Amino acid sequence: MDFKDQIKQLGDRVDKLKVNINTEEATKNAFVMPFIQCLGYDVFNPLEVVPEFISDIGIKKGEKIDYAIMKDHQPCVLVECKHWNQDLSIHDGQLLRYFHVSPAKFSILTNGVIYKFYSDLVTPNRMDEKPFLEFNITEIKDGQIEELKKFHKAYFDEEGIANTASELKYMNELKILIQKEFNEPTGDFVKHFAKQVYPGVVTAKILEQFTALLKKSLQQNISDNITARLKVALAKENKEEEIAQAAENDKKAEQKINTTDAEIQSFLIIKAILAKVLDVERVVFRDSQSYFAILLDNNNRKTIIRMFLNSDTNKFFCLLDDNKKEVRYNIDKIDELYKYSDDILKSVNKYL
Question: pTM above the 0.70 mark?
C-alpha cells in the first residue's frame, strides 16, 4: 500500500472511531501513533520515536513533549497531542516553550484529526504563531498528502522542507483571504473592481450596489470555470470510451479472422517472387475479414498485393495501379501467382 492510500485509510479510521475515543491518551494510541507509523517511523524504537520526551527549560524541570521524532540521536520533529475534540492552541503548551531551546526545526500540534505543522520562518529558533501546513486527516486533499510525504522517514530533508515551507505558509494564508473575500467582499476589495468599471465616484450607495454585483460575478465565474472543466473532463472521458470501444471492436474483428493455409501459401509464393529484388524480411502480411494483404515494410501505404481467397469458387487478387486503384486478376489455383510475377514485381518496384 502506498503512502497516499495509508493516509486515506487512517483518515477513514479516525472518522469512524473518534466518537468512541474519550481521553487524550486514547487519542494518542488510536490516532497519533498510527499517523507517526504512516510517516515510516517505528513508534516502539526509542532511536526513532521518544514518547514523553523530557526537557528542562529555565527553572522548569522535567517538561515533557508527547513525542519527539529522532534523527541522529537528536529530535527533528516535536509532536504535542490533545484530545480529538479539543481546540488546538499553541499558547499554553510545552511545545511553544520548548521549541526555542530544541534542535528540532519542525513541530506538530494535533488532536488526531487536525494537524498543524510549525517552523521558525519568521524568527529563527522561535516557533511561528501560524502553521505552514494544516489539514484535517478525515478530509485530506491530494496536494496536502504530497506536502506531508516530505516528512516521511524515507524522504525527510530538513533543508528542503524549510525552503518550501515559507511559500506554502503564505499560499495557505492567501487562499484563506481569497475565500473570505469571495464569501463576504470587503469594501477595499469591492472598490478595487468598482473603480475599474464605474465611471463616477464610488459612493456608499454605489459601493453597496457593487458588493452584491461582485459577489454574483465571483460566483458566476467559479460556476463557469467548473462547467468548463467538467466539459473538458467529459470530452476526455468520451474520447477514452471511444478509444476503448474501437480497441474492443478491433479485438472482436481479430477474433473472427482466420488465416487459412491458402493465404499462407500465397504469402510464401509472393516472397519467393520478390526475393529477386529485395530482402524478403521486409515483406509481411496483415490478415483482415475482407482480404489478406501483403505489404512492404509493414506499411499500409506500401501494399504489394491483396489476396481474396476465402471463396471456394471465386479466387482472385488485386494489385494497385499508379492511382491506388485495384486491378483485379482471377485465378483458379494459388500456384498461378507465378504467372503474374512481372506484374507483382512492377507493383513493388514503385516503392523501391
Answer: no
Q: What CA–CA distance (Å, rounded) separates 173 from 141?
A: 17
Provide the 3-class DSSP secondary structure of residue 32.
helix
Rg (CA), the chain: 37
Q: Do the beta carbons of residue 307 and residue 337 sit within 8 Å?
A: no
Instruction: Return the closest-CA partner of residue 295 out of 277, 315, 260, 270.
Output: 270
Exposure class string for 112-127: b at 16+ Cβ within 10 A, else e: bbbbbbbbbbeeeeeb
C-alpha to C-alpha distances, 90 to 87, 108, 169, 203, 302, nearest whole angstrom: 10, 10, 17, 43, 75
The C-alpha angle 68, 7, 89, rounded to 5 degrees, equals: 50
Q: Cell 479510521 identifies what position?
A: 13
Phi-psi region of 40 (alpha: psi -120 to 50; beta: other; left: phi over 0): left
Q: Answer positive or negative: Cα dihedral of 178, 181, 186, 188.
A: positive
Q: What is the pLDDT of residues 314-347, one digit of tens each?
A: 899 999 988 889 999 999 899 999 999 999 999 9
Cite the DSSP H helix spans in the chain: 3-17, 24-27, 33-38, 94-99, 142-149, 158-183, 187-197, 204-256, 261-274, 341-349
Query: Rounded distance, CA 190 to CA 198, Å?
Result: 11
DSSP letter, residue 322: T
State the DSSP string of 103-145: S--EEEEE-SSEEEEE--SSBTTB--SS-SEEEEGGG--HHHH
Residues 248, 252, 254, CA angle at the centre, nearest 5°?
Answer: 115
